[in-house]
Amino acid sequence: MSPHLCSGKIFVTGGAGFIGSHLVDRLCQNNFDVVVFDNLSAGRKENIEKWFETSNFKFVFGDLLLSEKIPHDLSGCETVFHLAANPEVRAGSENPTLHFEQNVLATFNLLEAVRKAESVKTLVFTSSSTVYGDAYEIPTPENYAPLKPVSVYGASKLASEALIASYAYTYGFKAVIYRLANIVGARTKHGVIHDFIRKLKENPKSLEILGDGTQKKSYLHVSDCLEAMLIGLEASKEKVEIYNIGSDDQVSVKEIADIICGKMGLNNVQYMFTGGVDGGRGWKGDVKFMLLNSNKLKQLGWKPKFNSRQAVERAVEEILKTGLKNY
Ligand SMILES: NC(=O)c1ccc[n+]([C@@H]2O[C@H](COP(=O)([O-])OP(=O)(O)OC[C@H]3O[C@@H](n4cnc5c(N)ncnc54)[C@H](O)[C@@H]3O)[C@@H](O)[C@H]2O)c1
Question: In angstroms, what is the span from residue 85 Cα to ligand 1's centroid?
Answer without folding.
Answer: 4
